[in-house]
Amino acid sequence: MQPGINNSLDPGPAVSRSVHHEPSALRVQYRALTDQMTADLSSAIGDRVRQERQSPHWTLDQLAETAGMSRRMVVNVEQGAANPSVGTLLRISDALGIGLPALVQPPQPRPVKVTRRGEGAVLWTGSAGPSLPSLSETPSGLVCRAVETRNK
Q1: Same domain, yes or no, for 29 and 47?
Q2: Bridge partners of 133?
Q3: Which end of the chain has fewer CB atoms within 10 angstroms, the N or the C?
Q4: Integer Cα distance of 47 and 88 in angstroms
């Protein structure tokens, strides 16, 4: 160390270490916007978790046990009250059998094709009158069948 030369990174007493600024209106708006975006995302994730959990008719306890977490954590995630870590979201998505990207995307409405009477091919017609129109399938795999009974 040479005398008279400051070898440290310390700026010395003449330089202020902290500068206090009042938050600007832009910074406050940004913070409020990000807080709202976080709340919206938490709510969307919670809705998606609930939808996927209820699809196979799982209880909160079943999902919690399968995901290896407390029931309270699952409740908080579903209610959008928690800001879960990526690890927590991965455990939930693995337990539900869906990928993490699908879990964090808002639920999409599933399209359904409606086949009106007389528009679909008839698979069977009995002499007594009942008929069985063809089955219609939605893109998600849901099969719908309409049965019409004719009374004489």
Answers
A1: yes
A2: 122
A3: C
A4: 16
Q: Which residue has the tokens 């902290």?
A: 18
Extract the residue ranges of the chain whose pLDDT is less than 50.
1, 6-12, 15-18
Name which of 98, 84, 92, 13 is nearest 42 in CA terms. 84
Distance CA 53, CA 63 (A): 7
Beta-carbon-side half-sphere exposure of residue 12 (alpha carbons within 13 Å) = 4
How far apart (Å, rounded) are the C-alpha atoms in residues 117 and 126? 17
Type and span of the H or E element at 26:
helix 25-54
Name the one residue in this structure whose structure tokens are 């969307």: 44
Q: To 10 degrees, what angle do helices 71-78 and 60-67 make?
A: 110
Q: In a 10 Å sphere around its CB, with 0-12 CB exposed, 13-18 middle and 19+ buried, how is residue 45 labelled? A: buried
Tens-digit pLDDT profile for residues 126-148? 666 555 555 555 555 555 555 55
Tell me the torsion sign for CA atoms 90, 92, 97, 98: negative
pTM: 0.52
Do 95 and 119 lie in one domain? The reply is no
Residues 75, 141 share a domain: no
83 Cβ contact list (under 8 Å, min separation 6): 38, 42
